[in-house]
Amino acid sequence: MAEVEIRAVSKAFKKTQAVSDLSLTVGDGEFVALLGPTGAGKTTTLRLIAGLEMPDRGSIRIGGRDVTGDAPADRDVAFVFQQYSLYPHLTVFENMAFALRAPIRRVPEAEIRAKVREVARLLHIETKLDNKATQLSGGQMQRVAIGRALVRSPAIYLMDEPLSSLDAKLRGEMRLELKRIQTDLGATILYVTHDQTEAMTMASRIGVIEAGRLLQIGTPREIYENPINAHVAARLGQPAINLLPAALFAGAPRGARTIGARTEHLTIARGGGDVSGDRHADRASRRPEPSPSRPWRPTRRDVVRP
Ligand SMILES: Nc1ncnc2c1ncn2[C@@H]1O[C@H](COP(=O)(O)OP(=O)(O)O)[C@@H](O)[C@H]1O
Ligand SMILES: [Mg+2]
Questions:
Q1: Whether 66 contacts 118, CB under 8 Å
Q2: What is the maximum span of the chain, computed from C-alpha positions, in angstroms?
Q3: In this structure, are residues 211 and 37 in contact, taking their beta carbons and an 8 Å threshold?
Q4: 153 in ligand 1 pocket by Cβ < 6 Å?
Q5: Averaged pLDDT for residues 152-174
Q6: Which of 58, 105, 206, 286 is the most buried if burial means most Cβ atoms within 10 Å?
Q7: 137: Cβ–Cβ under 8 A, 6 or more apart, which residues?
Q8: For residue 194, which of 23, 38, 1 has the smallest C-alpha distance?
Q9: pTM score
Q10: Looking at residues 256-273, what average pLDDT do you find?
Q11: Are 208 and 216 in contact (CB under 8 A)?
Q12: What ligand has the least distance to the C-alpha of 18?
């Protein structure tokens, strides 16, 4: 595994600026999630790292080496695609062994067998190794697709919404399993998703991406508690943060347009119908904790930029 660094990378498709001046470092052994809606530039970012797209500007380094001009095969990355495609006529074992059988890798057959079995065990598909890929449920096929990447030990695993086609229950299970496997293997992963729960539960750091720009990167807690603007604030949290016009609050700081208050920061007052909060909203303030006699009033730091 190795550190991967993207420096000021931009990529346009005709008039669409898919990725704009994006810089990001995934540390060796780190699990970073890129979180953003459809069209944000997530897949393009992964494809740029893998060498499936060439950047218009900027550079990509893997393990300290500039790979910007290198072919995909020379970059030592493993890609789990959103639309996974298994070879239907091959067994699960053969599907997983496929990447290891590439002539340039020259992996001995005994080693291939041992590796495939080990990864199949991690993914709980060891009893399916002799099945044809078509004789699997959707969840099992997805595991095989992930397994095909995990049998290798590349510099980095690039995963493009690998759980998005699973039903909610399986997705929840796979989140936990993937996180456990990543920790066990010490794997370096850049994981792309539009699902905030996935990002919050699996990643050590989350990059919030929108319209090709990385808006903020930090630990889940940093991004949740200290979002840099209203857009990032709204991306994380269930229920979503309450973004209210500052004019509703008598005590709003001068110039404030929006007040962000997370649900857990609000208390419903008895009687007078006053809205108060037991803690500040995001952009934590350093003022003292409010008490019943001193209802919550937003301060400058409760204000999130629109
Ligand atoms: N090969 C392509 N040709 C033209 N436009 C593309 C191509 N790939 C991506 N785009 C555009 O770039 C933007 C970012 O796409 P993508 O990286 O796939 O976003 P995401 O994975 O976050 O949904 C979108 O507007 C998309 O339509
Ligand atoms: Mg995508």
A1: no
A2: 77
A3: no
A4: no
A5: 90
A6: 206
A7: none
A8: 38
A9: 0.85
A10: 79
A11: yes
A12: 1
Tokens of 13: 């498709």
Closest residue to atom 12 of ligand 1, CA basis? 18
Q: pLDDT confidence of 283, banded at 50, 70, 90?
A: very low
The token pair at 17 is 């600026």
Q: Per-residue pLDDT tens for 202-233? A: 999 999 999 999 999 999 999 999 999 988 99
Between CA 178 and CA 290, with CA 232 as vertex, the angle to 5 degrees is: 105
> Mind listing the domains of the chain with CATH numbers?
4-225 (3.40.50.300), 239-302 (no CATH)
How would you classify the pairing of strands 16-26 and 156-160?
unpaired
Distance 135 CA to ligand 2 centre (A): 27
In the chain, the N- to C-terminal Cα span, in Å, equals: 39
Q: Is 41 in the pocket of ligand 1 (CB under 6 A)?
A: yes
Say how far apart CA 272 and CA 161 lie, in whole Å.
48
